[in-house]
Amino acid sequence: MAIERLSVLLLGLCTVAISQPAPSGQYASLNGARIYYEECGNQGVNLVLLHDGLLHSVTWDEVWKPLCSKYHVIRYDRRGYGRSDSAHGPFAPEEDLFALMRLVKMDRAILVGNSSGAGLALDFALAHPDMTEGLFLIGPVVHGMPTSAYFLDRGNRANAPLSTNDVKAAAENWSRDKFLIAGTEPEARTKLFNALVANPQNLKTGGQFEIRPSPPTVLRLNQIKSPTFVLVGEADIADVIAYAGAIEAAVPIVFMEVWKDCGHLIQIERPTDLVMRLQRFSVLADRRETSVPLETLRRYVGDYKFGERRIAITLADNRLWLRLPDLPDKPLFPSSMNRFFVRTTETEFEFERDTSANSVQLVIYNAGGSTIRCPRL
Question: Please, what are the domains in the chain?
Fold first, then answer.
């Protein structure tokens, strides 16, 4: 059994509760552009909601109020989308985000990104690691990874009516897209259609002025130190599933789930479940660790019997690391002198010690209540 690498398939049909909260935002001048944003809540963890490359911040309507009741939250329309200015020259999207967080006095935040918004979150985590509490990525994009011909052709076919300025036909094409929304879901598809008809500029924003990080983010995923959760709908396009797999393989602190009967816009399809999952992640990402002397950590280093295999506990950078066969090493965070946790699941690890304070057994406590005892070899 692999402790970290579990692709959880959640059952149940996607349900949608459509509402239209009245705009309550304002404008800020960020790096020479007029950017529309909304802010709510004054408690708990800071959250930043980053929309995809088709809709703008209205994509978060169904989760906005529930999140506002528990957290300090901002969402905004990126340049070229919704109510914000269009881009007229090169700019770095992560620097717009940096300026907005400074404006609203967010020193650190969990970045919640969908699609290209997830790509922006990854770029920001590399540019400003001290400001990134965690990454909650939905149907993510990874900048620097190639795009398939199938993906490009799909977009060209959907946008073809724009050549004759037929915005409604293009919006209709996207609203029927099988990858964005799984199943029929008429209310979700109507919301998508209406948002695009009301904001035709969204269909024409292709990121042509966006400055991408160098070296590309895909080559630096292993440098991201923030706890990361990756969520993919089973009906999403293959490119997105490939992006998610790349993140899962490279980021040190990561957990991935695949949700049944959902597509790309999970925040519209299944908002209630998304809020609940984000709440669980925020507790883990924000959990505080204690300080353990280096000499104590050294006493836990060694191999432990794990069924027919073994777990290796190593020490690097003044931190314990968990090593399982065929998996990247995972960092452990101390909650006491001999108990540790990971930041992506509720699994915890306790070192049982003898009278000399040397470790004799590793006990694994799984979220479901089961316990695994691993004697030291």
Answer: 8-286 (3.40.50.1820), 294-375 (2.40.128)
